[in-house]
Specification:
Chain lengths: ~325, ~325
């Protein structure tokens, strides 16, 4: 534990202390032993939801991406998994393997800290190590208090299928990541890519309002299919109801924009199912109903195309 | 969470399921939601001790090191931090960034599983990602139940200083890591390097027997100095009492063997301080008394060399 361990014999690692220690606290996590001993010791009143994610420069994001956005995105995408369990963000650890200059580290830490503030989650140590290349590798483990876990496997026949936010923006940004002159719409799409906004405001009500949930990281169809398979139900959706942003529709053809929304991924919005009676809650929270759960083989039926996605794929 | 997430689009990552899923359980960790949802959810009766470690091929271990040993060592060195807090190993996550063939993955997983069995700790998911080089990067986060954390900052004047195991063997192995013909002593040193044996047997009694503890990862002097600084005490040690193995003494000069024991690091044995009355417990558990805690500036006095290490270094 701690950012001061033996791996960090190089002088540049003194910078870690400057940029990653003594942050303000954003959550009410109870720390019995803070960093600086062999372990961190925390006390949790509730069961703990845990998720680990690694992103690799050159694989999950372009080389020389803006470090502020990479820092923000690394944490926001991890927190998205907590939200999808109905867990309240508590703390995270950071394992950073890198070989960068101080400017990179400073901006990365500022993006990370901004996400920590937005999602009310505390950094409690980690490890920093030297990369043999100049590609950064970032592993974040998030922890959240989770009294009532929300599963993928508990969607009920008759549930309405809802999604938060706009879908497809992050995927629509990928073709323009290296564009030099950006329109206002381009900027909006890039912002969706680097600054995902998983719906943290939904957390307090999720346990009482929804029957199942998953975060949309692989694309709506792929992730909704996880709910179908794990709940042994079928989904029927009206693709014209999927929320697609003006930026996406302006920058790409309608068909392409919908394709990004269906299969692009990297949305980090929530897909969830609710009993009919909770539709008002969903609408008040700016979530859109896009279909419903029916009996049948695990599959997704597209009411516009008269198309079964799973059956067509196999 | 889970080893089946979006990062793993490449076919080779199907191997992850083969080698890292459905392991037997070695601890009694209570899992409310196992892998396969957005998060793992665990329930812990006690406060949780947490430590994160990353090792990078080509930085922390040689390229083309035996994968079984790397797997074992990655987990054993992380568990060492739990032991130094008096925490009982519970579960760990694995973030593996790699680009290797199936044989490597199989042997790595077998070494990791052997350590999991030896230290009674369960693998609960993680993430696997593709490396852009053929160097593996392994991040392990260990979690242990820790009702009574044992700190570095609570050594008492009058305490005896003890160490477990032999010190210096792993460091003594480094010059011979690439040697082709190995004597029986060489093999013993290499074994100490790849298969560290932190003293898990001590855990149940640590909370009642010892006043402070640290795991020896940077070398006895560096780590004992952490206790001195954090407890604001001085240590006086008799270096002739430091346990050094026959293998180390046979392979290296006495002076060099002692140097490895004092400053080599990578021992993953325990350095701890006890009240006088607990000396029998330490001896019964094959730990050696090497000195005592006295009043004074944070420093280590070497009774043989009449030498203050900290004062000499600054």
């Amino acid at each position: 534990m701690s950012h001061t361990k033996s791996n960090n014999k190089s002088g540049e690692f003194d910078l870690i202390a400057r940029y990653f220690q003594n942050w303000p606290t954003f959550s009410d996590t109870q720390t019995l032993v803070p960093n600086g001993d062999d372990c961190l010791v925390i006390k949790s009143q509730s069961p703990l939801a845990i998720s680990v994610d690694t992103i690799v420069e050159g694989v999950h994001f372009l080389k020389n991406s803006p470090p502020h956005g990479i820092g923000y995105r690394a944490l926001a995408t991890a927190v998205s998994d907590l939200i999808a369990m109905g867990a309240s963000p508590s703390f995270f650890t950071l394992a950073l393997t890198f070989n960068k200059n101080e400017t990179w580290l400073k901006e990365f830490s500022e993006g990370l800290k901004k996400a920590a503030q937005d999602f009310k989650i505390d950094l409690h140590g980690g490890d920093t190590t030297q990369s043999i290349t100049d590609n950064a590798i970032i592993t974040i483990q998030v922890h959240g208090e989770c009294e009532h876990p929300i599963l993928r496997s508990t969607a009920q026949v008759g549930d309405l299928i809802c999604v938060s936010g706009f879908l497809g923006d992050a995927a629509a940004a990928i073709p323009i990541l290296e564009k030099e002159t950006l329109s206002i719409y381009d900027q909006s799409l890039l912002h969706a890519f680097y600054y995902p906004a998983p719906p943290i405001n939904l957390i307090p009500a999720l346990a009482t309002q929804v029957n199942s949930a998953i975060d949309i990281s692989d694309g709506l169809l792929a992730d909704l299919m996880h709910i179908c398979k794990q709940s042994q139900v079928q989904a029927t959706i009206d693709t014209s109801l999927i929320p697609i942003s003006q930026a996406n529709l302006t920058t790409h053809s309608t068909k392409q924009a919908l394709e990004y929304a269906l299969t692009g991924g990297d949305d980090y919005q929530l897909c969830f199912t609710i009993p009919n009676r909770n539709i008002k809650w969903a609408q008040q929270n700016k979530c859109k109903v896009i279909g419903s759960i029916i009996e049948g083989n695990p599959d997704i039926f597209d009411q516009h195309r008269f198309h079964y996605y799973q059956a067509a794929a196999t």
